[in-house]
Specification:
Oligomer: single chain
Number of helices: 21
Strand order of the largest sheet: 1-3-2
Shape: flat
Largest sheet: 3 strands, antiparallel
Radius of gyration: 38 Å
Helix content: 40-55%
Distance between the termini: 72 Å
Order of helices and strands: EHHHHEEHEEHHHHHHHHHHHHHHHH
Strand content: under 5%
Length: 498
């Protein structure tokens, strides 16, 4: 096989006789434990353009093969199309529903391709999305990564500008000479957009139309361009352009000559074509499958047949939601099309006027707003319960015991006044310190204990020992500091504010 016909799947440059030797890689797979940013061996892409170069390299190299027994079997153009949507997000926090709307894929397909991007080392989790019961779902935070295999294969040299920063923050500083041509091809691919592939029916129709036009000798004009030959049927070599007369040069010089301008077709100049009855049914069915979660995955044609009555009556998807609110929805759905047929039975006869439908929509929107406020209150109550300060017990007996304990712990000890001197009675007896210094230290420790801070005395106990700490601060202050420190370590009591 010649070099021109060789498959260009593995885009690996030839080895170089230097320190940046490019080795041929055998496999590209990142296990689940290494799919987090903290455990990744790759580096963060500086922008979406450079990241798409790495995506196209992985797609063309053929080094990555999924190891699951289901789902896509290779890194295809669909995976690249999902990556294009991720490259435009900043920060990269895609939701599954957002990617479903943008790509037209199913939820399972989107999850498959996201896992393929993680297994190929192109994505790394920063925060993994969760679904909390009774609350909204949180999208995952991703970091767009460039695999280490990409740098090794292309001979890209990296440098760590900050030695204290993690390894994934390194940046590219150079590339091997033999890889510059490959990098240019990857740059050209990254600048193009991968579109959704055309359906087979449309492709066959286009091919048949082209073959039929070639057989009949029809010359099709290109939009916004003038025809060089008039349209004609047959294979005659005679041209009718010989009788075409041009204006004289005098009129061309004066600017009075007017060339005929091609007329735009009525389809381009006019508005969109109005849908017929079947088109309205399918339009409503498609909107229902997109906006009602329990209809996801149902056949659009079957939903169009089920909703034919309300579609023919001129209902919109908002009107259907208002009616479903009045009719009542089931919490557990086994067959979405069957449930919809039961719920829509007789709907067009009950809400037979636009005013009735508008009233149903208003009730549905009011219920949605009430549910939203209820969820907000639940989230706030949960946050205040787990993130707030300690809540007082509900039992009066327990409240009385807690109040007595707090009073005994934080009640100031009265100091006897000695007339004629400013020093406290317990100050005397400290070796190496004057009385005013010891009094100032005890006053500061007492003030900190009043606000729940026992660190001053506990540090003294650890550094000097209990006897020296009692000699400096007094036995009463040391005892209260130890009680406060033991209470702070308990999960049932909280001092101060967090």
């Amino acid at each position: 096989m010649s070099a021109a016909k060789a498959p260009a799947a593995v885009l690996l440059p030839s080895p170089r006789p230097s320190d940046d030797d490019v080795s041929v890689l055998s496999d590209l797979y990142v296990p689940e434990a290494s799919q987090w940013l903290s455990t990744s061996t790759g580096r963060i892409a500086s922008d979406g353009y450079s990241w798409m170069q790495a995506v196209h390299w992985v797609a063309g190299s053929g080094l990555y093969k999924p190891r699951r027994s289901h789902g896509p079997r290779s890194f295809s153009a669909t995976t690249v199309r999902v990556a294009q949507e991720l490259a435009e997000l900043c920060p990269c926090r895609p939701g599954i529903e957002y990617l479903v709307r943008r790509t037209g894929l199913s939820e399972r397909s989107v999850e498959y391709h996201l896992s393929m991007l993680r297994e190929a080392g192109l994505l790394a989790w920063i925060v993994k999305g969760t679904r909390v019961s009774g609350g909204p779902a949180r999208a995952s935070d991703f970091a767009r990564m460039i695999p280490r295999e990409f740098d090794v294969a292309l001979g890209i040299r990296t440098v760590q500008r900050d030695q204290d920063a993690p390894a994934y923050t390194r940046a590219a500083s150079g590339i091997a000479e033999s890889s510059r041509e490959l990098m240019a091809r990857l740059a050209a691919k990254a600048s193009r957009k991968v579109r959704r592939p055309r359906s087979k029916t449309l492709s066959k129709t286009s091919v048949r139309g082209d073959q039929k036009g070639a057989e009949q000798g029809v010359v099709t004009a290109v939009a916004d361009e003038t025809r060089c030959t008039p349209m004609q049927v047959g294979t005659s070599t005679d041209s009718s352009a010989g009788g075409t007369s041009l204006p004289p040069e005098s009129k061309l010089a004066s600017g009075d000559a007017k060339f005929p301008t091609p007329k735009k077709s009525a389809a381009r100049a006019g508005s969109r074509r109005e849908l017929n009855r079947v088109g309205r049914r399918f339009q409503l069915a498609r909107q229902l499958t997109q906006e009602l979660g329990w209809l996801r995955g149902c056949s659009v044609a079957r939903i169009a047949w089920v909703a034919r009555g309300v579609a023919d009556a001129g209902w919109t998807v908002t009107d259907v939601k208002g009616w479903l609110h009045l009719r009542g929805e089931a919490t557990r759905v086994r067959r979405g099309s069957g449930l919809l047929a039961v719920l829509l039975a007789g709907a067009e006869t009950v809400l037979d006027t636009p005013a009735k439908r508008a009233d149903a929509v208003e009730q549905w929107r009011g219920a949605q707003e009430a549910a939203r406020r209820h969820r907000i209150r639940q989230v706030r109550a949960c946050a205040e319960r787990y993130d707030g300060d300690w809540d007082a017990p509900t039992s009066r007996a327990v409240q009385r015991q807690v109040n007595e304990a707090f009073t005994a712990s934080f009640r100031p000890t009265p100091q006897p006044a000695v007339p004629g001197t400013d020093a406290l009675p317990e100050v005397s007896g400290v070796d190496g310190l004057e009385d005013d210094v010891v009094a100032e230290a005890r006053a500061e420790a007492r003030q900190r204990l009043m606000v729940g801070d026992s660190s001053l005395i506990t540090v003294a106990i650890d550094a000097m020992g209990p006897e020296a700490a009692e000699q400096l601060y007094g036995a009463d202050l040391v005892r209260r500091a130890l009680q406060l420190a033991s209470g702070a370590r308990s999960s049932l009591m909280t001092y101060g504010r967090r």
